[in-house]
Design brief:
The protein is α+β, with helices and mostly antiparallel strands. Helices cover 48% and strands 11% of the residues.
Length: 189
Amino acid sequence: MPGYKHTPVASLSADAADITVTCIAPSKTFNLAGLSTSSVIISNPVLRKYFIKKIDSLHIGNGNIFGNIASAAAYSGGGEWVDELMRYIALNAALVKEFCEEHIPEIIPVMPEATYMIWLDCRKLAMTGSEIKDFFVSKAGVGLNEGSSFGKGGEGFMRMNLAAPRSTVRKAMEQIGAAAEGIRKNINS
């Protein structure tokens, strides 16, 4: 995200690079998931040889011509597009944060440093994970990912995709806000 810098583990030192397998893919960043293309960077020749042998034994290392060409084009000429995408997603994140601050103080967004997902801390709603999921799906009419499905520590959180038109994100927030208002009215009556 703007203001943050990614540091690949292999760039930390020669010793780190020697034991690191770096996996990259243009699938999410450039919306090329359907082309099933990724790259693996292994500077240690012994580790690389072992990896290639394993990939060959599984018959999964051939790739495809469309994916290879699209991947090369994305990485060599897609920098401006990615920069604009990240700015757009950062504005969507800011919209979620500001909306929660103004209308849903019970939900605290955890601003992303990378990716197009934002975590919503819903613990102030004082609900179980299944109750939170039901609140979002049944009351607000939005389909988010319930946090505990990602492992321990995710309880009380929901994960929201920000890679959408701003109008879609705004509509989702308005629906969540209306559902939260409904809860507040029930508590206060």
